[in-house]
Each structure stands twice: as C-alpha cells, then as structure tokens.
Amino acid sequence: MCGIVAYLGQRRAQPILIEGLKRLEYRGYDSAGVAIRCADGMHLAKAVGRIMMLENEAALRSCDAGTLGIAHTRWATHGGPSVENAHPHTDASGKLAVVHNGIIENHSALRKLLEQEGVVFRSETDSEVLPHLFAKYYRGDLAEAVRQGLKEVRGTYGIAVIHADNPDALVAARNGSPLIVGIGDGEFVVASDASAIIAHTTRVVYLEDREIVTLTRDGFSTSTIDAVPTSKEIQEVEWDLEQIEKKGYAHFMLKEIYEQPESLADTTRGRIDIEEATAVLGGLRAFAKELTRAKRIILTGCGTAWHSALIGEYLFEDLARIPVEVEYASEFRYRNPIIEDGTVVVAISQSGETADTLAAVREARNKGALTLGIVNVVGSTIARETDAGVYLHAGPEIGVASTKAFTSQVMVLFLMTLFLGRRRHMAHHHAVNIIQALTRVPDQVRDLLKQDGHIEEIARTYKDRENWLYLGRGYNFPIALEGALKLKEISYVHAEGLPAAEMKHGPIALITPDMPVVFLANRGLQYDKIMSNIEEVRSRGGRVIAVATEGDEEIGSHADHVIRVPDVGESLQPLLNVVPLQLLAYHVAVMRGCAVDKPRNLAKSVTVE
Ligand code: G6P
Asked: Are 33 and 71 in contact (CB under 8 A)?
C-alpha cells in the first residue's frame, strides 16, 4: 500500500531515493521519509504531503554524501499521516532504520511486549514494532537480527533495513508485499515496485514470500526467514514505466478489479477472532457498550458508498437484528433528521472527503449521535471527525469508478455485523459459518476473474446498446444499482438498476429487442420470482444476461448469456456478484473508446456539496 526504495552503491543515495519516491507517488501518498547512513551516523528526514515537501527538509540536505539509504512514501493504514507516523522508523538508539509496507497483524501484542521491556514508542503505526524488535536481536549481524525478529511477526511485509554501524549492508525481506531487487553495476536499488528501479537497471531479482536478501558492496545472498539459502535467477524487466504503474493492466480500474482478492484479504487481516467467532475491530472497542445498546443505525454515504450502505441495511437487520435506515448523505443533511438516544450514524466513504457525507456527519454529531466512519483513506476528514470507525485497508484506489473500495466496504459491514451480532443475538455456530464463508471469498473472487474473457464477449455483443436495465432482489438489489452505476459512469450508456419486482410498475414499458437486461439470478429464496421476471423480459424480446449459480442448468434455457458464480448464500452473494458487473462495465467502456479511469464530468473525490 506504500512505496519503498532503498539504495546501496557508489553514488550519492539521496537523489536516487528521492527520484525513486517520485516514481511511486502516482498511487497517491500522504507522507514520506528518508534515512541515509553517513559517516557521522544515521540521518533522518520526514515530511507530510507530497515528496516535494520532503525535498525541502533541511535534514535531508544535511546528509549529502551517504551511499546507503532507505526511503518510503506512506499511504496510511494505522495512524494518520503525520511526521511521527511517517517511515523510516528507528530503534531507541536511532541507529537502526526500517521502512515497511504491509500490515503487522500482531502489532498490538508485540508493542505491549516491547513496552514491558522498556521500549518507548513514538508513533501510532504497526510498523514501529519492527526496528525495536530487530534492535533487540542485533549483535552486529543485521541480517541475523532481522531474521530473528521476523520470526515473531505475523502479517504482511516488504521491508528494507539499515544500521548506522553497518555501512556496507542493506537487508530486505518480504511476505505478501512485493519487493524487487534491482542489480546495477556495483550498486543495488531495492523497491516495492519496478518503476523506481528501471531508471537504473532492468536486471532484477523478485523476492518470494518469507525470503530475505542481504546486499553488500560485494554482492547479494538470499535465504528464507528460517535461514535456508535460496538461489535466485536474475530477470529482465520488459515493461515501460507507464505499464509498470498500472502493473501491466491497461487501466487502473482493471488493475483495481483484479486486486480484489488481495484487498479483501487485507480488509479482514487480523480482524477475525475464530475462537469467539467475532470480529476484532480496534477502532470500535471503546464504543462496544454503546453499540451493543444501539436502538437504530443510520447508514449514509454517496454514490457507490451508498450502495454498500444498502447492503449494510440487509446485513445489520437480517443478521445482527438492529433497525437500520439508509440515507443519501445529501438528503440526510437537509431533512432535519430525528436523532434520538441510541441512534448511531455510520458514514461510508472511500476518500473520507466527500462534502455531502462530511456534512451529514457534522449534522449527526451536532444532534448528539454517536458517529462512526467506514473509510479507506486514513487520517481523512471523515475519519478524523467521526467518534470512531473502521478503515478499509483496501489500498489506494485511483480509478474514478470505485471497485475494490466497494467490496471492502461490504466486507467491513460484514465484520461490523459480526461485532454487533455476537454482542446481541447471533449464535456462536452461526457466526462461525459466516466467518468460514468470508475467508473463502478472496479465492472465490480470484476464480471469478477467470471469466473475464467470457464477460468481454458479452460486452462485445451489446456495446452499442444505449439503454440497459439491471435487476435483482433482496441482497442483490443494491448490486443491481451498483452494476448500473458502473456502466453509466464509465461508458456513458444509460443504465438503471431496480428491485426486480418494480419492473412491472413502469420500466417494463421500455423493454424492446434492443434492451439488454442484466439479472442477478442466483439460486435462493427468490429464485422462482426472478425466473418469472426473466420470462417477462424475454416475452417482450429483451435480451437477458444472467448472473447465476454454478451448476444451475435450468437458467441456460431462459437467458441469452449466463455468468456463473459459486453459491455462497444470500448475504455473501453481493461480494461475488458485483465482480462480473464491474468487468462488464469496464469492457463496454473500453470498446466505446471512453476514458475509463477519468470519465467525463466525474471526480474521484467530490468536495463540493
Ligand atoms: C464520487 C465518485 C464515486 C463515489 C462517490 C463517493 O461521486 O465518483 O465513485 O462513490 O463520490 O465517494 P466516497 O469517497 O465518499 O466514497
């Protein structure tokens, strides 16, 4: 989620690190920092904001000569964007410096342990446990200290570590967070992303999970965290910079659709307590009592976030048995809402900056409600102005059309359902079933993505149609809305989403052989009703694209096209069903020549009311 660059060689490290950070900035970062080893010790410079701000730091200019250094651009996950929370983090002596990407799942336990041993923490980050842990094991051999420390760490990481007393050693390791070693002529550039390397060399080694590399001025060696030596093949990077930023995908939106198996796993990482069958949501802990006693929850947001709120309504009412209302943030703000004792207002927002949603939060707070945020961007205004909240941890979302943030919002709502439900009426065994199903979702999404080619063909068939309908019932109704929104946002085609039963009250008049109708037709409680709706469309010549359950043979004879998804039960179905609809919208937009990542008239973050 963040960016790492590290250098060991004969040249001045500082300009190489700064240039590398700039290459990584395309992902939208909020703070940055550099540590350079100089003859008089470790020099550290950090700044909030763009890399430009870091360049202005006097501390950075004070160490010009060092040829060993590490640097980091942060996209906050634990602790807001601030100088204290920016990397590199150091140990108590200030000699050992670490940059880290990823999430340390057991950071609270490690922090407690280290504090008992007398360590004083200076930031709110999960990452700061690493320098203290490595320092604890440091006896002159940096790689050995890192290896010992990492044995105690649970979670994901890409790290680079240096020590003031080791002018010739750079140690890096990865587990679930990419790290690439660029091998130049008498120098090494390590980075989380090839874009920061290829200005210097195209020869690289890709680290594997649980692998650690020690770079010295004489060469490099790799081993597993358990000290088993590994042998690496040097490879050539073939992409150009533009391709690398998008990791080879044609658009950020496509990249973000494909990132969903990982972003969903990141959203749940470290947040499930399987023993107690509940969710561990650190941000809500202090308000657990108030939430357990809540009489009513109001979910609010705009656009895609409002659609996830609708799913939240089904989840909270169905599984946690709390009355819920969903309200467009803009409407909530101006209708003089009634907030009574026990009302909790939950604002959902990817950016955390949407003006309408922020205004709703302020209105709710002024009226005395407990306010919570479900936000992706750490330290954003909504995150700061709500009483508590849960971050998505989905990573930066660049494409204007929200994809991975949406699925992570739904995932967080699931976690909150467990958190609230288990404190209210949800039985242990019921929660265990939900947790088991939730943990399978990332792999199921990965499998679903394999149907991309099939979905592209469907898009080709209908790309020139100007009107589409999306229909679903129950948990699938918000997905119908979201599918239609994706299509209209990026392909400028008119699309409407509806509860399937509503079609007969008006929209059925629109149906002609020119009209593609997307049905969310999974097997379940309302399957027969959906089949009747499909027949109503077919008998008027409409074309039917059905998202249906794997193994449902019947649907084939009713629909023109079938996209198959696994049966995960009513409540979880939205998380899978939305993925093919994201792809369908994407392909239609590409085929119509639209600017997918920057659709006309739209902005990623709408900060005006
Ligand atoms: C804009 C974007 C949408 C987004 C909405 C809410 O309209 O184009 O994609 O869903 O804002 O944004 P938020 O950052 O609050 O989730």
From this structure: yes
pLDDT band at 76 (very low <50, low <70, confident <90, very high): confident
How distant is the alpha carbon of residue 168 from its chain centre?
36
Provide the pLDDT for residue 367: 94
pLDDT given at position 431: 97
Structurally, at CATH architecture level, domain 443-595 sits in 3-Layer(aba) Sandwich (3.40)
| pLDDT category of residue 242 using cuts at 50, 70 and 90 | low
Mutation pick for ligand 1 pocket among 257, 299, 311, 350 (CB with most ligand atoms within 8 Å): 350
pTM: 0.81
Q: What are phi and psi of 349, to 5 degrees?
A: -160, 130
Whether 604 is catalytic: yes
Domain boundaries, the chain: 2-242, 251-426, 443-595
SS (H, E, C) 342-390: CEEEEEEECCCCCHHHHHHHHHHHHCCCEEEEEECCCCCHHHHHCCEEE
pLDDT at position 432 is 97
Residue 26 has pLDDT above 80, yes or no: no
Query: Quick one: tokens of 146?
Result: 């890192």
CATH class (in words) of the domain with range 2-242: alpha beta
Q: Report d(CA 204, CA 373) in Å as an integer.
A: 41
- Ligand 1 binding pocket, CB closer than 6 Å: 302-305, 349-351, 354, 357, 400-402, 602, 605-606
Residue 254: predicted pLDDT:
97
CATH no. for 251-426: 3.40.50.10490
Cα–Cα distance for residue pair 72/60, rounded to 1 Å: 14
Residue 306 CA, ligand 1 centroid: distance in Å: 9
Q: How far is the CA of 253 from the centre of ligand 1 (A)?
A: 14
- Distance (Å, rounded) from C-alpha 155 to C-alpha 107? 9
Q: Cα–Cα distance between 432 and 577 in angstroms, integer? A: 23
Sort residue 159 into left (φ over 0), alpha (ψ -120 to 50) or beta: beta
Q: Please name the residue whose Cα sits nearest to atom 3 of ligand 1.
A: 303
For residue 451, give the DSSP letter.
G
Average pLDDT over residues 504-523: 91
At 408, is the pLDDT very low, low, confident or very high (cuts 50, 70, 90)? very high
Instruction: Answer whether 251-426 and 443-595 agree in fold.
Output: yes
